[in-house]
User: Which sequence fits this backbone?
């Protein structure tokens, strides 16, 4: 089975830590809760099988997947109180944080140590961690 994929936005974490100082944003469900598990990214899963009409090296916006970038749904999810009632969401494609992959820790606390960013440079090579 391939390692899990996730996106961790350090800027979003810093903002949330300042907002909720006693919470942990570094392990547990935070990796899965990033809302960016890179659906379809299977690092270590072998070749991407199909035709060039089904799969491309570029994403739907023509951006290269070297690495595959993502973002939290709506952006950081943080809104300064002075900006209320804004949702704080980002418009368009603002993802600039790579999708990482890595094995879960043996401790069971949900921590993942990245072994690289999910990258697709050739369909025959498939997704790799770089």
Assistant:
């Amino acid at each position: 089975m391939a390692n899990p994929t996730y996106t961790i936005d350090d800027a979003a974490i810093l903002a949330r830590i300042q907002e909720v100082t006693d919470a942990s944003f570094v392990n547990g469900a935070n990796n899965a809760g990033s809302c960016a598990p890179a659906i379809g990214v299977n690092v270590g899963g072998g070749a991407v099988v199909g035709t060039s009409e089904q799969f491309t090296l570029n994403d739907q916006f023509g951006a290269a997947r070297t690495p595959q970038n993502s973002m939290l749904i709506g952006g950081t999810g943080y809104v300064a109180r002075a900006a209320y009632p804004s949702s704080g969401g980002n418009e368009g494609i603002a993802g600039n944080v790579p999708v990482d992959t890595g094995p879960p820790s043996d401790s069971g606390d949900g921590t993942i140590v990245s072994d690289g960013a999910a990258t697709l440079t050739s369909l025959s090579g498939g997704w790799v961690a770089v």
About this structure: The radius of gyration is 16 Å.
